[in-house]
Design brief:
CATH topology of the largest domain: Beta-Lactamase
Keywords: Kinase, Transcription, Transcription regulation, Transferase
Protein name: Transcriptional regulator
Helix content: 55-70%
Number of strands: 5
Number of helices: 9
CATH class of the largest domain: Alpha Beta
InterPro entries: ANTAR, CheY-like_superfamily, GAF, GAF-like_dom_sf, GAF_ANTAR, WH-like_DNA-bd_sf
Low-confidence stretches: 229-235
Strand content: 5-15%
CATH superfamily of the largest domain: GAF domain
Number of domains: 2
Largest sheet: 5 strands, antiparallel
Shape: elongated
Structural class: alpha+beta
Pfam family, one: ANTAR
GO molecular function, one term: RNA binding
Mean pLDDT: 80
Order of helices and strands: HHEEHHEHEEHHHH
Strand order of the largest sheet: 2-1-5-4-3
Length: 235
């Protein structure tokens, strides 16, 4: 690996460390990473992340320009294109010249008629949790990406996947805290209504959840709503 590539990799590692240390692994952090990719990958002008869930709903997560967002909207409409192919088929997709690449005809037609994009490089993101995504790089010139571009693109894909995983863990932690707070409120309602202690109240709530086949947090929310509907609505 050249000195320049080594420097870029070191900068990416430092950025990931900052995101983890400062708890800033958010959409803004992802945007910073793809901006860096658009700047440093040879031939690249724009970048974006495509999310394609298990139900094959396609959305754009973050982009450096409207072109990646527009092209993701087309992929959502037609269920075809290099970015969703990279995500769904577990591949690296390289479009050297969109004007002659016939793999996704409806996507190709829209891109040629409405954008100047001619070269695309897409990587599956291994982000876990059933999430399917792709990191995409775009250029207006055909044959814009060379072997160095593809190698560095893979490096960026690894680091973006790591940042995404950190962001998911952060969201899961917040969700867990919120669920704990809701269940605690529901326990308080049960304790007051039935004159039970905390352990007995939680056991009753758990039994009700099992008997009704309702998620514990959902049941707790319904109980709080029934007791204090205005408080829940406007808090």
């Amino acid at each position: 690996m050249s000195d320049e590539k080594t420097t870029i990799v070191a900068q990416l590692a430092e950025l990931i460390a900052i995101l983890e240390r400062d708890g800033t692994a958010t959409e803004a952090g992802l945007h910073e990473l793809i901006e860096s990719g658009a700047t440093h990958i040879p031939g690249c002008q724009y970048a974006g992340i495509t999310l394609a869930d298990a139900g094959k709903v396609v959305t754009n997560v973050v982009a450096t320009h409207r072109y990646p967002t527009d092209l993701d909207a087309v992929q959502a409409r037609y269920r075809e294109g290099p970015c969703v192919a990279a995500a769904w088929e577990h591949h690296i997709m390289h479009v050297a010249d969109l004007a002659v690449d016939k793999r996704w005809p409806r996507y190709q037609q829209y891109a040629l008629e409405h954008t100047p994009i001619r070269s695309i490089l897409s990587y599956e993101l291994f982000v876990g949790g059933g999430t399917i995504a792709a990191l995409n790089f775009y250029a207006e010139q055909p044959h814009a990406f060379n072997e160095d571009s593809m190698e560095l693109g893979g490096v960026f894909a690894t680091h973006v996947a790591l940042a995404w995983s950190m962001m998911r863990r952060k969201d899961q932690f917040r969700s867990a805290l919120a669920s704990r707070d809701i269940i605690g409120q529901a326990k308080g309602v049960i304790m007051e209504r039935f004159n039970l202690d905390a352990v007995e109240a939680f056991e009753l709530l758990t039994r009700l959840s099992q008997q009704s086949n309702t998620n514990l947090t959902d049941l707790a929310e319904k109980l709080i709503d029934s007791e204090h509907p205005l408080k829940r609505r406007y808090r």
